[in-house]
Amino acid sequence: MDSKKGNKIISFIVFLILAAFAVFCLAPFFFLIISSLRPGVEMIRNGISLTIDFSALNLNNYSLLLEGKDGIYPFWYLNSIIITVLHTTISLLLTSMVGYGLAVYDFKGKNLIFTIVLVVMMIPVEILILPLYKLAIGIKMIDTHLGVILPFVVAPTSIFFFRQYATSLPKELLDAGRIDGCGEFKIFFRIMMPLMMPAFGAMGILQAMFSWNSFVWPLIVLRSNDMLTLPIGLQSLLTPYGNNYDLLFPGAVMSVIPIIILFIFNQKAFISGLTVGGVKG
Amino acid sequence: MSEPLVANIMKQSPRHMRFKKLFTSQKAAPYLFVLPFILSVLLFFLYPIISTVIMSFQRIDGPGDVTYIGFKNYQNLLNPHFLNAIWVTTKYTFWTILVLIPLPLVLAVLLNNKTTIGRNYFRSAFFMPALTSVIVAGLFFRLSFGEQETAMVNSILGVFGVEPAVWLQDADKSMFVLVLLATWRWMGVNIIYFLSGLQGISTELYESASIDGANKLEQFWHITLPSLKPVILYVTTISIYGGYSMFAESFALWGSARSPGEIGMTIVCYLYQEGFNNNNLGLGSAIGIALLVIVMVVSLVQLWASGFFKKETN
């Protein structure tokens, strides 16, 4: 009896600990939403404060999203959507091909290429921003959506993920396809790709999240105000001459919502996309 | 007129077929599959690396106005700004590892316990911050750690009679905010790494241990920790890489690569400031190469210290 009671107390304490950390994780979302319903002047005066005057909250800031700063916010939103969709689609197509090629075939140089995939994974992108910037100027990609997408679209982590997944594909299907007279690419697109759909789901969601939140490279490539993505646009509202909190908070809240919706409906895909990468490697 | 045209098509079509055959042959196909990666690596990885190595030996005053200056840029790295940047970045990396490994590990163990109530909800809640962009996170932390008496953290401390602090103007206090921001955003991700590691441990190990009379703490120490070693090693390695290449968190907290008294100046912030704000591509490149060397040395030392190479040779 005593030990059972002890177990109950322990699991209650565990629950309290977890709840405390859950509050730490979720409270910022709550306060971001509350702050988006307050006039921006109050942010400058008080910062984000604990006391909330619920009667003073209103949706005025949200209408500013369409009108404020000559209605630039919807453009940022659109840019983020375009870049995320293009990046994710192109990336899935190309990295799945590469991963599949590395997993299914035996060919000269295969190990070398796979080693290079691992090396590229290990090099921090940040050390390359200067030469990449110079290159982007050279090939006229500065301030274009393509310039944001192209350098990182063949993502090595995604290749690694697809390779791991494709090694478990049944090789007999490859031979069967060949006997039926299918070319190698037809085998990939018609037979193997459908079998790899779970991998596409997991990687697609993860790539979309990274692309949507991507900060460092877009900050460098994008120049004109109407080309910016959401993170860069929001960042541009923080200026030495005063911060436009009226626009920043509702803008930030709206920028988080699509990813949260994606997460709520695809939690498993998020998690499997994350974990296959390193742990077993 | 029409006859040579037909003949032409007749002649061309086998060649066209031959080309198609080559394109889809089993020998050529694998290379075509990996071609996107090869092109991408050559253009967006190898070329930039070579170009940054070359630039690090140059003084670049404008397009076409380039002088070779040997190791001058590297000598210039020995300045107080860069040394401060190394110090700030190392502190940040140290603290993030110190927090972002034990804490998520313990939480993952608690979540992995089948009797824990609402474990899936907790897991989702812990992961939510990872979905936000660093700018959104920075916005929350800079304003809840605002210098006003009424700002969230100051008002909580005020309840305990602590004087309101100016958080983002002081080296130690702002380091605390930076590490807290990183903890908020990455805790859930590391929890998921550890959870997937925990699920790989066979339950029989625990069963036989508890038959032998080992309590939960002993089981954690002698079974869980050793089994998780590969995951811990992996998370440490990515934390070293992430920590040393930190840039966006600092940028988001202060709204630019510059911070008062350079208290948030990381190596990449310094690279950004020299390369983009001061247009000093040569020095910027040298900073990049130095960062690469630092990161590799630190992670090699880490792997050596944890006995990674010893295991390889056995």
Question: Main attributes?
Answer:
heterodimer, A: 281 residues, mainly alpha, MetI-like fold, 2 domains, two-stranded antiparallel ribbon, 2 strands, 74% helix, B: 314 residues, 16 helices, globular
At a glance:
The complex is a heterodimer of chains A (281) and B (314). Chain A is mainly α and 281 residues long.
Question: Could you characterize the architecture of this molecule?
Answer:
The complex is a heterodimer of chains A (281) and B (314). Chain A is 74% helix and 1% strand. The model of chain A has no long low-confidence stretch (mean pLDDT 90). In chain A, helix 2 crosses helix 14 and helix 4 packs across helix 8. Chain A is mainly α. Chain A has a two-stranded antiparallel ribbon with strand order 1-2. Chain A folds into 2 domains: 63 residues, no CATH class; 210 residues, MetI-like (MetI-like fold, Orthogonal Bundle). Chain B is mainly α. Chain B has 2 domains: 54 residues, no CATH class; 240 residues, MetI-like (MetI-like fold). Chain B contains 16 helices and 2 strands. In chain B, strands 1-2 form a two-stranded antiparallel sheet. In chain B, helix 7 packs across helix 13. The longest helix of chain B is centred in the middle third of the chain and has 28 residues. Chain B starts with a helix and ends with a helix. The model of chain B has no long low-confidence stretch (mean pLDDT 89). The chains are: A mainly alpha (281), B mainly alpha (314). The interface between A and B is large, with 98 and 97 residues.
Topology:
The complex is a heterodimer of chains A (281) and B (314).
Chain A lengths: L1 H35 L3 H7 L13 H12 L1 H32 L5 H13 L6 H10 L6 H5 L6 H11 L4 H9 L4 H12 L1 H17 L2 H6 L8 H7 L1 E2 L2 E2 L1 H21 L1 H12 L3
Antiparallel strand pairs in A: 1-2
Helix pairs in contact in A: 1-14, 2-14, 3-14, 4-8, 4-11, 5-8, 8-11, 9-10, 11-15, 13-14
Chain B lengths: L1 H23 L4 H27 L2 E5 L2 E4 L3 H5 L3 H21 L1 H11 L6 H9 L6 H11 L7 H8 L11 H28 L4 H9 L4 H12 L1 H16 L3 H7 L12 H11 L3 H25 L2 H6 L1
Antiparallel strand pairs in B: 1-2
Helix pairs in contact in B: 2-15, 4-5, 4-9, 4-12, 4-14, 5-9, 6-9, 7-9, 7-13, 9-12, 12-15, 14-15
